[in-house]
Structure formats: structure tokens, C-alpha cells
Amino acid sequence: MTDKIPLIALMDVSKMTPQNLIEGKVVSAKDLPAATEALAALLSGGYSVWTDGSLYNIKQLVGRVHGLKIEVFAKEHHPPHFHISGGGIDATFSLADCAHLEGHIGGRERALVEWWYQRSRSTLMRAWNESRPTNCPVGPVLE
């Protein structure tokens, strides 16, 4: 009898990103419904597919506060900003000072965003800087 090596020991942990895990599900799908389910999870989770078939992350969920999603998108325009969505809200705020840039948001929700920003600014800046592709017109920001 031979000892079994755990599957995790055979995997390159440095490559265990969400993209790689989902891509593995798509590639290993046994039938069309399984592939469709994996692709739906992939494309609804902020990923897209290049024409060569490779995956790229188009947005990153940075946080949530009372039903609102806080996200940064990979390829953006000036000024550096983050997106708030949920509960009928779709707004953008400046990374530099949390100024409201676009969209409709109520006073209560705006106060929640500002509260979250004060406590999570470093996390937000790190997410922005780590998600910049080389061809992004808006580069990293200084904290």
C-alpha cells in the first residue's frame, strides 16, 4: 500500500488565484452545463476573457458596508476613484479624499461610504495599486 500525497501538496500554491481556480473548473468540466456554470461564475465575478482565451480581472471587490459594494476597476480613467453599488446606488468617489464624483447616493449611504473610507483607506489604496494593468491610463496612487 502506498501513501497518498494530498492534492494540495501537488499544486503550486503561488498560482492558486481565484482566476486559476475558476479556469480549472472550466477546463475540467465534464459537460456543457458544468462548463456553463463555471463560466457564469467567472464572468459574474469581475473577470473577462481576452481574444486569446486568457482571463483578466476587470474589477475587484474591496469591501462591503451595509449592502453596498466597494470596488475598483482595473482599466480606469482620471481621476483615480472607486465605485459604490447596491440598493439602487451606482456612484463613484475620489481615492484621494472620498469626494463624491458621480452618481446618485443618499445622505445616509454617503455617510456610510465616508465612514468606511476613513477606516479602510489603506486597503482601498492597496487594492487600486495592485489592480493596475500595465496599459492603464491611470497608474498607481501614493498613500
Question: Can you put this structure into words, describing what you see?
Answer:
This protein is α+β, with helices and mostly antiparallel strands and 143 residues long. The chain folds into two domains: 7-56, no CATH class; 58-130, no CATH class. The chain has helices at 7-10, 18-27, 32-44, 107-130; strands at residues 47-49, 55-57, 59-65, 68-73, 81-86, 89-94, 100-104. The strands form two sheets. The chain has a five-stranded antiparallel beta sheet with strand order 3-4-5-6-7, covered by helices on one side. The protein has a two-stranded antiparallel ribbon with strand order 1-2. A hairpin with a 5-residue loop joins strand 6 (89-94) and strand 7. The longest helix is centred in the C-terminal third of the chain and has 24 residues, at 107-130. The termini are far apart.
What's the number of structural domains?
Answer: 2
Q: Low-confidence spans: pLDDT under 50, at least 5 residues?
A: 1-15
Distance between the termini: 57 Å
Structural class computed from helices and strand pairing: alpha+beta
Strand runs, count: 7
The portion of residues assigned to helices is 25-40%
Largest pleated sheet: 5 strands, antiparallel
Summed up:
This protein is of the alpha+beta class and 143 residues long. It has helices at 7-10, 18-27, 32-44, 107-130; strands at 47-49, 55-57, 59-65, 68-73, 81-86, 89-94, 100-104. 36% of the residues lie in helices and 25% in strands.
